[in-house]
Amino acid sequence: MHAARPIPPAPFAKILPAIVAGILAADALPALSLRTAVVVSLLLLGAMILCRRHDTAATLCTYAAIFCVAAAMTCATRPRSNLPRNRELMLTLEVAEAPVSTGRWLRTTARIDAFRPVEGDTVRWQQSGEKMLLRIDTSHTVTAGERLIVTGRASDLGSGAYASYARLMQRRGYGAALWVNARQTVLRLPDHRLTLRARASLLQRTATERLARLHLRPDAFATAAAMTTGDRNAIDASLRDRYGATGTSHLLAVSGLHVGIVALLVNLLLWPLAALRGGHLLRNLLALPAIWGYAALTGLSPSVVRAATMFSGVQLALAASQSRSSLNLLCATASIMLLVWPNYLFDVSFQLSFAAVAGIFLLYRPLYGAVRSRFRAANACWSLFMVGLAATLATLPLVSCHFGRIPLIGLVINPLLILTANVTVLASLVWILTPLPALNGFFSTLIGATAGLQNDLIATAAAQSWASLPLRLSPAEALLAYLLPMLLWLLLRRYRTSRTSARRTVPPADKIPMP
Question: What is the pTM of this model?
Answer without folding.
Answer: 0.76
